[in-house]
Amino acid sequence: MNIGIDFHDTLSYAPAFFISMMRNWEHDIYVISGTPASQKDDIKRQLDELGITSDLYKDILLSYEYSDREMGVAHFNTMKEYKLSILKEYNITIYYDDNPFYVEYLKDHGIIVFQTILSTAYLDKWSGKDPLFTCNLQRKQFRYLDELDPENPLG
């Protein structure tokens, strides 16, 4: 039962929780990110700064190279398939990620998926700093709840 944990907005959102879990997990743990592989040293540095040292995980698995101009819906659809291929290649059967594109897709491919739900304060803090910050995708994820019929919410 290998675990994969997304870096941005999952590990970085709740490092203390994941460190505790990682210290006690008996199988392989992989840090996964849609960040291009050319930025591995930067991801490693950020992990170290969060206290997520290399003894807590087996490897950092990053993505193919792409540019910021490619960060549209097509990118997320391609990345979800890429992430699935990584999970399958490394026999990762449990996966944590915040991105709705990925969790919705991966849940139907034999992966036990846990979605990190980000607080409004976190979304507010980070969304203004980076317009490509994918946590912005969660802002609309639960809006359907406001549209439920109060008398028959399940109908």
Explain this structure to me?
With 155 residues, this protein is an alpha/beta fold. 37% of the residues lie in helices and 18% in strands. The chain contains six helices and five strands; from the N terminus they run E-H-H-E-H-E-H-E-H-E-H. It has helices at residues 7-11, 15-24, 40-49, 73-89, 100-106, 120-127, and strands at residues 2-6, 29-36, 59-63, 92-97, 112-115. The protein has a five-stranded parallel beta sheet, with helices on both faces. The termini are far apart. The mean pLDDT is 90.
Give a short overview.
With 155 residues, the chain is of the alpha/beta class. The chain has helices at residues 7-11, 15-24, 40-49, 73-89, 100-106, 120-127; strands at residues 2-6, 29-36, 59-63, 92-97, 112-115.
- CATH class annotation: Alpha Beta
CATH topology assignment: Rossmann fold
Q: Major β-sheet, in short? A: 5 strands, parallel
**In DSSP terms, counting alpha (H) and pi (I) runs of 4 or more, how many helices?**
6
Helix content: 25-40%
Shape: globular
How many independent structural domains?
A: 1
Quote the distance from N terminus to C terminus.
37 Å
What is the second-level CATH architecture? 3-Layer(aba) Sandwich
Q: What's the name of the CATH homologous superfamily?
A: HAD superfamily/HAD-like
